[in-house]
Amino acid sequence: MSWKLDSDRPIYTQLLEILQINIVSGHYPPGSKLKSVRELAMDAGVNPNTMQRAFAELEQQGLIRTERTAGRFVTEDTEMVGKTRETIAGAQLDLFLEKMEQLGFGRQEIVEFVSTRALAQAGRRNSASAGSDTNGGAQA
Amino acid sequence: MAELLKTEHLVKTYEKNARPALNDVTLAIPEGRIVGLLGPNGSGKTTLIKLINGLLTPTSGSVTINGYAPGPETKAVVSYLPDRFCLPQDKTIEELINYYFDFYADFDTERANDMLSRLQIDPHSRVKTLSKGTQEKLQLVLVMSRRARLYILDEPIAGVDPAARDYILKTIISNYQEDASILLSTHLISDVEPILDDVIFIRNGRLVLCSSVEELREEQGKSLDTYFREVFAC
Predict the structure, then answer these.
(1) Residue A47 sits at the chain B interface (C-beta within 8 Å)
(2) How far is B212 from chain A (nearest CA, A)?
(3) How many separate domains does chain A show?
C-alpha cells in the first residue's frame, strides 16, 4: 500500500495501519526482513522518529521482531497475522454496516445485496478477462 | 535526552522604549528532533534565529547551544541557512564547495556533489548565472552538507518549486544524524508537517505554544496547518 497520509490524524497511527495492512496482505511476507526505519521514513516522507514509533507499536503487538544486529523481521506466527487480518476486516465491515444502516438497509437486505453484488462483479471480471483474451488475439 | 539548545527569558529590543521583538522566551530543543518555528510575519522568528546564531546580542536573558553561548564553539556545530541569499556572486559553485570545505571541519564534499547532481545543478556554473530558485537550492545544499549538531533553517523552501521541495525535505530527513536537531521556520506548514516532531508557535515576540505535533493532532483532531490558521486568525 502506498504512503498516503492525512494531516488531521496522528501520522504514526496511519503509518501503523499501512504497515499492518502490508503485513496481513502478505506484501511483507512472514519472516521477511523489513527496510530500515530511515529508509521507510524516506519512502513515506515522514520523520524517522514517527516511523520508529509505529515500529515500536508493531513490535508490541508482536507483528514484527527486532534482532539486535540483523534488523527487523515480520513475524512467522501466521496464526497471529491471520487474527490481525480478521480484526482489520471486522473494523471495515462495522463501518460498512453503519453506513448501510444510515441508508435504511435492514440486515437481511444487506446480506442479499452484498452477495448478488459480489457474484455479479466476479462474473463481470471473468467475462472481461475472457473478452480481452480474444481481443488480444484479433489484434495480434 | 540531552538539551542541545536552550534559551532562558530571552528578550530582544531593537530600539529603546520600542515593543520588544522577542519577549521572555524560554525554550529547549533536545537532540534528535525536527522542530518547526511558526508564527505570522513580524512575530520574531528571524530575531530568535539571529540571537541563536550570535548575529544579534540579547537585551536580556541567555542562549546556550551545547552549553556554550553563541561564539566560535557554537558556530563549529551549528549550520545556519539565513533568510536571504548571502553567497558571493562571482564564484563558481565548485569554488564555493572548496571554500566551505576549508572553512568548516564538518563539511562533506561528496554529499554536496551528490545533492547538486540530484538537483541537476552544474558545479562549474557561476553563482550569478543561476536563477533565484537555484541559488536558494545551492545555499541549502551547502548548509545541509555539513555534519552539524544543529541545523537552523530560516525559510528553507520558500522560493523552491514543489518537486525540489519534496527532494529537499527528503534530504533533510535522510541527512541529519540521530543526535542532531533541526530548527526550521516556514510559512509552508502543510509541506513540512509530516516531518516535524515538535512545533513552536510565536506571536508578537512571545511563545504561544511548544508541543509535539503528534500530540497536537491527537488532541485537536486537526492538522497543524488548520490549527495555525485558527490560532493566528486575523
Answers:
(1) yes
(2) 11
(3) 2
**A119-140 pLDDT per residue, tens:** 888 777 777 666 555 444 444 3
> What radius of gyration, in Å, describes the C-alpha atoms of chain A?
20
Q: What CATH number has the domain bearing residue A69?
A: 1.10.10.10
Contact status of A7 with chain B (Cβ, < 8 Å): yes
CATH number at residue B100: 3.40.50.300
ipTM, two decimals, is 0.72
Collapsed DSSP state (helix, strand, coil) of residue B69 = coil
Distance CA A73, CA B197 (A): 26
SS3 at position B208: strand
Separation of alpha carbons B78 and B173, rounded Å: 17
Distance from CA of A39 to the nearest CA of B (A): 8
Where in the sequence is the domain holding B153, given as residue range(s)?
Answer: 3-231
Can you list the residues of chain B whose pLDDT is less than 70?
1
* B25-53 as b/e: b if 16+ CB within 10 A: bebebbbbbbbbbbbeeebbbbbbbbbbb
The answer to whether residues A69 and A120 belong to one domain is: no
Instruction: Indicate the angle between helix axes B109-118 and B162-175, nearest 10 degrees.
Output: 150
* pLDDT, tens digit, 9 for 90 and up, residues B148-200: 999 999 988 887 888 888 888 888 887 777 789 999 998 888 888 889 999 99
